[in-house]
Amino acid sequence: MKKLVEKLEELKKSEISETIRNRINEFEQFQKRENKDLFQELSFCLLTANFNAAKSIIIQEEIRGGFLTLEKNELIKKLKEFGHRFPNNRAKYILDARKHISTLKETLKSFENEKELRNWLVNNVKGLGMKESSHFLRNVGYKNLAIIDFHIVDLLVKEDLIGRPKTITKKKYLEIEQVLEKVGKESNLNLAELDLYLWFMETGKVLK
C-alpha cells in the first residue's frame, strides 16, 4: 500500500489535482438539481454496466431529456444509433426506472447512511448493481462509496493489494471496498476523490 499512497501523494501535488477538485465540486452541485436531472444521471449509470464510460457520456449528452420521455422502441433506436452494446436491455431498465422519477430526490434525502442508500438502489432499480449504484451516488455528491470496475481491480492487483477475483459478488465488492477505504485513509482522500485519482492513474483520464 505504501507505494500506491506515495503515487497518490505525487498526483495530489500535480495539476491533475485541480481537475479532480473541480469534478468533485460538480458532483456536489448535483444535490441541488431536480428529479429530472437526477434521473438523467441515473440513466447514464444504467448505460455504463459492461459498457464504456466515455461512450456512455456521449450517449447521455445526445439523448438527455429523452431518457424521461422516449417510447421504448425510440429509445432502443437511439441507443443502437449511438453504438450501445445492449440497447434492448438498457432501454428496458431505463423505462422501468421511470417509476422513481418523481420521488428520486426525496428518496436520496431519506437515507442518512450511504451504504443503506446504495442497497436500496440495488434492490429497487433493475440494472443497477453495486458498482452502478455507487457510481450514481458519487456523481450526485456522495463521497464514501467505492466504484469498483475492472480498471480499479487491475490497479489493485498490480499493487498487490488484492488477488484477482474470478467474479465480483456483493461480498467480494465489500471486501475490495474495505481495501480502498484503507488506501483513502492513508492518503487522506475520501472514496469519491480516490476513485478519480485511481482512474487517472490507470487510464490517464478524469471522467465521471
CATH secondary-structure class of the largest domain: Mainly Alpha
From the 3D structure, determine the CATH topology of the largest domain.
Endonuclease III, domain 1
Helix content: 55-70%
CATH H-level name of the largest domain... which superfamily?
Answer: Hypothetical protein, domain 2
Measured between the Cα atoms of the first and last residue, the distance is 25 Å
Low-confidence stretches: none
Largest sheet: none
| Count of DSSP-assigned helices | 13
Could you characterize the architecture of this molecule?
By secondary structure, the protein is mainly alpha-helical. The chain has 2 domains: 2-28 and 146-203, Endonuclease Iii, domain 2, CATH 1.10.1670.10; 34-139, Hypothetical protein, domain 2 (Endonuclease III, domain 1). Helix content is 68%, strand content 0%. It is built from 13 helices and no strands. The protein has helices at residues 2-12, 16-29, 35-48, 53-63, 66-69, 72-81, 87-97, 104-109, 114-124, 130-139, 150-158, 170-187, 191-203. The longest helix has 18 residues, at 170-187. The protein is globular. The model has no long low-confidence stretch (mean pLDDT 96).
